[in-house]
Amino acid sequence: MTLAHLETLIAAFGALLVVAAIAGAAWFGAGELRLRAIRRGRMLAVTGGTGPAVPLRGAGRSVGDQLLSGVRRLGQQSAVRDPAKLSVLRTRLMQAGFYNREAPVIYLGARAAALVVATVGVLLTLPMIAGAKSGNLIGVLVAALLAGAAILGPDQVLKARKTNREREYSDGFPDLLDLLVASVEAGLSLDAAVTRVTDELARRYPNLVAHLRFLVLELRAGKARKDAWTAFAERLGIDDARQMATMLRQAEEMGTSLGDTLTVFSQDMRSKRMLRAEEKALALSAKLTVPLILFIFPCLLGSLLLPAIARLMHVFGKH
User: Fold this and answer.
1) Most CB atoms within 10 A, among 28, 36, 74, 166?
2) Average pLDDT over the chain, rounded to whole?
3) Is residue 301's pLDDT more than 70?
4) How many other C-beta atoms can be found within 10 angstroms of the C-beta atom of residue 96?
5) Which class for 194: exposed (0-12), middle (13-18), buried (19 or more C-beta within 10 A)?
6) pTM greater than 0.70 (yes/no)
7) Is 105 exposed, middle or buried (0-12, 13-18, 19+ CB in 10 A)?
8) What pLDDT score was predicted for residue 248?
9) Are 191 and 213 a contacting pair, CB within 8 Å?
10) Contact, 180 vs 197, CB < 8 A?
11) DSSP code per residue over 278-308
């Protein structure tokens, strides 16, 4: 394939991308008009055909508020297309620390906005790709980075936040159980013990305490204890919390002592925490093998051999 054929293919691909972008913009505009028509119909149905005077969109609002409103509209379009995934996405967002009711819509809107920005960026890199040979590789790399960031970026950010919080939950769960055992053995009920423990752990594990406060509010609202603890475990997303919820449900159904049950479970959590620490310590030597071979061993070898090599070169240079 000659260079002229390659440039022709790149130009045709660029034209195809431009047509796809125009079609996507038209499709988005049609969806926005359809969504506004649905809202207008609901408003007229509620108000009996005489809707209240609605202020102009964007009037008296800052640029940040207008951007957030645009992202929210993009998210509403995605939510209307696939409403079945909202509950799963809401659970993931709560595990990552986003508790707002509109968090799924804003997340979907942010993903759609990232795709739009990446598409515009790829279109802007087409002249660079079709230009000189030195710019071809750079343009392809920039386009690949933009596409990867738009497709994988939001999910990776969400996954990283979830991983960090799960690490904090795993570290704080044994302390939570120890304080619960001490409070229950001191004569407090389990609900009062949770309230007391929430105040004690607020400075050390703030993210875990946020979920504990949700648990306290659910218990005060009259939710069943087993259902509240099950929802608490699902929000945390760790196995220790699920095991604790199952244990409390079984203890309530069988009528066993909560103090003894929590004591045994706390000892088990402490043992698991120690085993995880020992596992990390034992795996450290294996993990250090690759850095030792790649970085430390060449430096050590060079520091040992270079003086001898220099001495031999000096000796043989005289002869």
Assistant:
1) 74
2) 77
3) yes
4) 21
5) buried
6) no
7) buried
8) 86
9) no
10) yes
11) HHHHHHHHHHTHHHIIIIIHHHHHHHHHHHH
